Amino acid sequence: MQYIVTGLDGRDQDAAQRRLDARQAHLASAEAMKANGSLLFASAILSEQEAMIGSIMIVDFADRAALDAWLDSEPYIKGKVWQEVKVEPCRVAPMFAKH
């Protein structure tokens, strides 16, 4: 099952530092997910000043329980970077699927 995960960063004065502190672990996790096929696409969400303020990830997991298990270990959640997380089921169009 495919999902759009939107994580919005906190807006407090320490938010940017939390993101920076967790960034390497988040990117390493994303690399592993891309390698195993569970990460289909990802992008930072930027403010008008081009500062990172959140993330979007399109992921593929067997079911919601598997997605939730990943979320429990996601560095941006564990590091309290993402203060709001929205999960929506989706279906990636076949033209974007791996061949």
Shape, please? globular
The unreliable regions are none
Total strand segments? 4
- What is the count of structural domains? 1
CATH class value: Alpha Beta
Strand order of the largest sheet: 2-3-1-4
Secondary-structure element string: EHEEHHE
Structural class: alpha+beta
In the CATH classification, which architecture applies? Answer: 2-Layer Sandwich
Alpha carbon gap, first and last residue: 18 Å
For the residues shown, what is the average pLDDT? 95
Strand residue percentage: 25-35%
Number of helices: 3
- CATH fold topology: Alpha-Beta Plaits
Q: If you compute it from the alpha carbons, what radius of gyration comes out, rounded to the nearest whole angstrom?
A: 14 Å
Provide the helix percentage.
Answer: 25-40%
CATH superfamily: Dimeric alpha+beta barrel
- Report the biggest beta sheet as strand number plus sense, adding barrel if it closes: 4 strands, antiparallel
